[in-house]
Amino acid sequence: TRLYWYVSVLVILIPVALILAFLLASQLQRVITTPINDLLKMTTTVSKNKDYSLRAKKLANDEVGSLIDGFNDMLLHIEERTAQLKAKVEELTQTRHELVQSEKMASLGRLVAGFAHELNTPIGVAVGTASLLSEKSKFINQLLEDEEVDEEELIPALETIDEASKLTLSNLRRAAGLVSSFKRTAVDQTSEQVRKFTVKATIEDVINTLHNKFKRTSIKIQLECSAHLEIYSIPGTLEQIVTNLMMNSLIHGFEEGKHSGNIMIAVHLENQHLLINYLDTGKGIAPDALEKVFEPFFTTHRAHGGSGLGMYICYNLVTSQLKGTMNCESTPDNGVNFRISFPVAFSLPKL
User: Fold this and answer.
1) What are the φ/ψ torsions at residue 146 (nearest 5 degrees)?
2) Torsion over CA of 201, 206, 212 and 215, rounded to 10 degrees?
3) Disulfide engineering: 175 pairs with which of 64, 122, 136, 318, CB 3.0-4.6 Å?
4) Quick one: which of 103, 105, 101, 343 has its CA closest to 233?
5) Rounded-to-integer distance, Cα 48 and Cα 52, Å
6) Could you give the angle at which helices 199-209 and 235-248 cross, rounded to 10 degrees?
7) Burial of 275 by CB count in 10 Å (0-12 exposed, 13-18 middle, 19+ buried)?
8) CA pair distance 245, 157, nearest whole angstrom
9) Tens of pLDDT, residue by residue, the chain (351 residues)
């Protein structure tokens, strides 16, 4: 009888215990497991979509609710910080763009000054020979009017006119070539348009426009590049880079041309990339300065008006506009070697 009673009690208690356990588990799932699973899903969604404006839903004011509050506060701080960083990046991008444009205008100013000086020579010669032509023409006209034409006087005058005409024509052609080169270079340096161009001719234009800066120095400039190498890229950017490198060599490497030396520019293709090795035999760069050579506003010539933007602009033009790489190797008294590589196309890219 007692055994029967125990069995009866167990038969009643076991279902009741199971029901209570199920109810307790359901409550625990509602209070703890479900919110934590929801929080886990929210964490995964935020991590995947990078959307920090999302918020986890709080179901109760308990420990799990405090955890959700902390998670939402963290999302709020991340959202605010992300917005601040995004604004700062946009500001820095705009500043960098303005610096690039400013350097382009400064380079164009140097180009105009050099062009004006270079153009002055052939124009001056042409004006002088034109004046001589006018003088000899008047002399011959006077002989003809006086009807006293003397062969000994006429022939030298005609020979002088012939020589002066050839000299005038030669210098005017040189001036026309300078104008053409200046127009092409000026347009390219203020444009970011992709077009087909000959690499060697483009670099030669830069060398010619900087001739006035180097002609009173003992610095020799050598260019190794195939005359038939044509690519689709941004010629103005390449011109800006070469201009900055050459001016950097003149000012820093050779100390405003006080020292003699060589500048060597070697250009070749490798695996659809244009490789440029720019070397000078100047005084080189100290190790501590080499680490900062591409940093903005870093210059060793601050007292002489250096802005510290030349190499920074070069680096950003190569990496941002041309999607390439640029590095520098140098030791004191052993010159400098800049290596530039960027991808190129041989047909017009599809827009």
Assistant:
1) -80, -5
2) -60
3) 122
4) 343
5) 11
6) 40
7) middle
8) 50
9) 677 777 777 777 777 777 777 677 666 666 667 777 778 888 888 888 888 888 888 777 777 788 888 888 888 888 888 889 999 988 887 877 777 677 667 666 666 666 676 677 778 888 888 888 888 888 878 777 776 667 777 788 888 888 888 888 888 887 777 677 666 666 555 566 788 899 999 999 889 888 878 888 999 999 999 999 999 888 888 988 998 899 889 988 888 778 899 999 999 999 889 999 999 999 988 888 888 888 876 666 544 445 567 788 888 889 988 999 999 999 888 899 999 999 987 555 554
Tell me how far apart the alpha carbons of residues 192 and 235 are, in angstroms, rounded to a whole number.
8
Q: Which of 237, 336, 325 is nearest to 293 (CA)?
A: 336
Q: Global pTM?
A: 0.56
The span from the CA of 246 to the CA of 15, in Å, is 92
CATH fold group of domain 191-351: Heat Shock Protein 90 (3.30.565)
CA–CA separation, 261 and 239 (whole Å)? 22
Under 8 Å between Cβ of 267 and 227: no
Amino acid at 323: K
Find the helix or strand (DSSP H, E) in which 63 lies.
helix 63-146
Q: Is 281 exposed, middle or buried (0-12, 13-18, 19+ CB in 10 A)?
A: buried
Sequence ranges of the chain with CATH classification 3.30.565.10? 191-351
Q: Residue 78 corresponds to which tokens in the numbers above?
A: 């991340």
Backbone region of residue 209 per phi and psi (left: phi > 0; alpha: psi in -120 to 50; beta: other values): alpha
